[in-house]
């Protein structure tokens, strides 16, 4: 019996984690944009893998340089920046049929000096990290916004009761506990009217608003999603982190028609009430041991009924189910 032939499978390549910082110094009040960008190309790269022929290989160094060159004119929203990179590589090289571009965006605050925000000195913000992914697949464009490290905690209005008990269950039921998590969320922007899987990709005419691709205003969407996530976490009583996750996702889908679905990965950062009786003290839910591990890990997608999730958009996003 002959062995099956060995063939090349799916492949992509590019430059990972290009750290690009853009300072806009048009006035004395400088602006700063700080991104970590990964560019990966897909297409016909067979000969590079099979024959050592690099005639189709756009060097990863060139991809890195392209990120820096595109930043020269200003970055804008990470989603729009990644879309510009996708357009460039897929239109400039006819054997590049698609790819995946990913960014983390780090926020900086102005340093306060004598009550005034400084013009050109910044302190890295304690805020969460914004994330973005663009997947180009032929003419299709999938845009995923997101955030990670949005650490939240509520000191009451959270419990965990009614779970099954077996011979291994020791956890006491509680109607009042601390609930804390680091929210990681990714949301897929809905494809717009006229956006086909195949040809006929809109040229951005029409809508006018947003980031110049005819799509949503990604910065405004980001701030809205962030505010809705925080609001839902704060406002609703939590019977479990699972229910809170679904509330947070529902709130976003109710309020943001431009978003098709949202996925979460949220650790349950347990806060255990410390037994102070050995010291002759009571502890009415005031002193906690904040354990860092193990932690519960709650993951789910919140979707719209009947809206099919494009698997290609989510491929390569680790840590979400
Ligand atoms: O919100 C919670 N969900 C769980 O699934 C769980 N399991 C557990 O031990 N504590 C909690 N809390």
Chart the SSEs and their pairings.
Blueprint: E1 13-24, E2 31-43, H1 46-51, H2 60-71, H3 78-92, E3 96-106, E4 108-113, E5 116-124, E6 129-137, E7 140-154, E8 179-189, H4 218-235, H5 241-255, E9 259-268, E10 271-273, E11 288-290, E12 296-302, H6 311-314
Antiparallel strand pairs: 1-2, 2-3, 3-6, 4-5, 6-7, 7-8, 8-9, 9-12, 10-11
The structure holds uric acid (URC).
Uric acid (URC) binds next to α5.
Explain how this protein is built.
By secondary structure, the chain is an alpha+beta fold. The chain has two domains: 11-138, Urate Oxidase, CATH 3.10.270; 144-321, Urate Oxidase, CATH 3.10.270. The chain has six helices and twelve strands. Helix 4 (218-235) runs antiparallel to helix 5 (241-255). Uric acid (URC) binds next to helix 5.
Structurally, how many domains make up the residues? 2
Structural class: alpha+beta
Strand-residue fraction?
A: 25-35%
- Please count the beta strands (DSSP E, at least 2 residues each): 12
Q: So, the CATH homologous superfamily of the largest domain? A: Urate Oxidase
List the secondary-structure elements in sequence, H or E: EEHHHEEEEEEHHEEEEH
CATH topology description of the largest domain: Urate Oxidase
Largest beta sheet: what is the strand line-up? 1-2-3-6-7-8-9-12
Structural shape: globular
Number of helices: 6
Oligomer: single chain
Q: Mind summarizing the main beta sheet?
A: 8 strands, antiparallel
Could you say what the CATH architecture of the largest domain is?
Roll
CATH class of the largest domain: Alpha Beta
List the bound ligands: uric acid
Give the helix level as a range of percent. Answer: 10-25%
End-to-end Cα distance: 41 Å
Low-confidence stretches: 198-209
Rg, Cα atoms, Å: 24 Å
